[in-house]
Amino acid sequence: MSQRAERRAVVVAATPTPNGDLHIGHMAGPYLAGDVYSRYLAADGRDVIYTTCTDDSQTYVTTTARRLGVPPEQLCATSTAQIERTITAMGLSMEGLPPVDDRYRATVLEFFTRLHTAGRLRERTVRLPYAEKTGRYLYDGLMTGHCPVCLTGSSGGVCEGCGHPNNADELIGPQSVLEPASPVSTREATILVLPMEEYRERLTAYFAERLARWRPHAAQLVRELLARPLPEIPVTVPGDWGIEAPFAETPGQILYPWVEAMPAVMYSTWWSAARRGEVAGSVDELWRADSDTQLVYFHGFDNVYHWGLMDLVLLMAHGDRYVLPEANISNEFYDLEGEKFSTSRNHLIWSADLLAEVPRDLVRFYLALTAPEFQRTNFSTAALTEVTTRRLTEPWNRLADSLDAIAPAGSAGPLPTTAVGRARAAALIERFRLTYELEAFSLGRSAENITAALDRLASAAPAVRAGDDALAAGDLLLQVRALLACAAPLLVDTAAEATAAGVDLALDAEQPEKITPFALPRLPQAARAGTGSTEVAA
Fold this sequence. Notes:
CATH architecture of the largest domain: 3-Layer(aba) Sandwich
Number of domains: 2
Distance between the termini: 40 Å
Shape: elongated
CATH topology of the largest domain: Rossmann fold
């Protein structure tokens, strides 16, 4: 076994805020991408944990709960159950969502208490926006205004548009979300921070080694942030929704919601391993530097600052205790019928609703084909049906019919293969590897690879007859099996059916000199009626 195959991988999707279910914009971003990468690693013989954890302390929970007229605790519970059902419905290879319980909170507190004890945190007196009528300090989703960098509309914390942070009183013209009529001033508060600038040398070395793997837009943002004084990370804030900070310097404050992510996903990694029957010595064991874990993050562009810099510094602040992520794969926004997803305008499609109408493999294929990897892309209900039928289902089922005519499953013994056929099957796998490996990971190109190989094999199959040329039939079957194995991270139900029938879909196996005839599972048709946009060029 190679050294690469022996390494454990931990793949993390951005922690979802439990203020609603996951819509298809979420799914076409980090969640499907992280699943496909995890499934690829597993097919290649790797031990992998794919995980995430709900982000219950976010201010967006309280603002959504106020708008809906429900207690935030109830919203968290309801949304977490919805998110978990959607994860299952989409076939994501996670163990599930861990409970945000006393063990979770203890893990978070231990992470920051260790930093506090080591003297990594600093007291700072800052000026925070303040809603005068209610006496509420404002941060993150509790306020809106305009970004000080790109001047567009923004919430507090980070600008969704340009990705730059806007801590404390940097947001231009802040207004309270919960009390929109309240005058907003600024007031001093003493909080604890982690100074990011103290880690500049280590950050510079880290990105010199790894930034080439990042997508261009995210890499540009990192370079912009490193070109100016780095912000200080709030660790505590004066608030009333979140985990109470245990530090004497900041009585009555909570941990800043965004800093929970690192200990949260350490906890979810431990919980996932435990669900698989593994017993760990400590919650953070698989994140320790001596574990040699390969750590990979998947998230949206609006989280590049958080997952790319802030959380990285939180790991670095623990000295050499933890592994650092080998790559951050970010995505852009996914539009619906040409407009941004909007919960308030009900301009969205919940993932669970789409999956109730359209077979899962077709949804996964279309979201991959149109994934917003390098720029904003568009979901069209009309295109979903037309494109999956034309580019996937019809040629796939034609190929399945041809295989049945050439060598029906169970009707003949193993067929011989040639060196040329084995080389072509291996070449097919290598083309897919280029789109699945971190250096150029791409859902879209993986989906395009499926259609290209499918067109070639479906066109060649009618000319092959097992009785006339067993070698040609064996070579065709071998290449179809390679295609099926390469498509398996996307077409999970089709792959499961083939595996149940005894087809070996491992990507790290040698190409055999004989292959037993098998049936290619047929794909169902998309059932959802096309509406809206007529863009079908994908």
